[in-house]
Design brief:
The protein is an alpha/beta fold and 146 residues long. 34% of the residues lie in helices and 21% in strands. The chain has a single domain, classed as 3-Layer(aba) Sandwich (Rossmann fold).
Length: 146
């Protein structure tokens, strides 16, 4: 089973790496270029992807990279902790038949993130870390990883 994690750097990546400790295998983590370069000595394989920073050209590069990663790695399961740069890969993997799990960041306790709102309808499993988000995501499972 090929499990791929995807997140932006910083706290999102920290949450994803925390989740990875509880998985039997994690094939790789896709994250923004700088974060991937900083984690080269880890047991986890990190692959860089462009963070579009709300640029249409950056988004197109991200989409191209996401397509290549999805084709090359053919994940069975994708786990994402956000943020927006993860959306293209998550959706491409979902269209290819992968089980897609989204974990809303622990920083969100009363209002949903934009990425969460986008990916909620496409998630096989949607996890929130606060009961305060259940009104926004009625089918979500509440489970704290922090």
């Amino acid at each position: 089973m090929r499990i791929i994690g995807i997140s932006s750097g910083g706290g999102h990546l920290t949450e994803l790496v925390t989740i990875a400790r509880f998985l039997p295998t994690l094939s790789a983590v896709i994250t923004e270029t700088g974060a991937a370069e900083r984690n080269t000595g880890s047991d986890i394989s990190f692959m860089p992807i462009r963070d579009p920073h709300r640029s249409i050209f950056g988004f197109l590069r991200n989409l191209g990279q996401a397509f290549r990663y999805a084709q090359r790695h053919k994940p069975d399961v994708v786990i994402s902790t956000g943020a927006g740069m993860t959306v293209p890969f998550f959706l491409l993997a979902k269209m290819a038949g992968a089980v897609c799990i989204y974990v809303e960041t622990g920083a969100r306790i009363s209002t949903p993130s934009m990425t969460g709102r986008i990916l909620y309808p496409f998630s096989s499993l949607f996890i929130v870390q606060s009961d305060g988000l259940r009104s926004f995501y009625p089918k979500a499972v509440v489970a704290s990883i922090l």
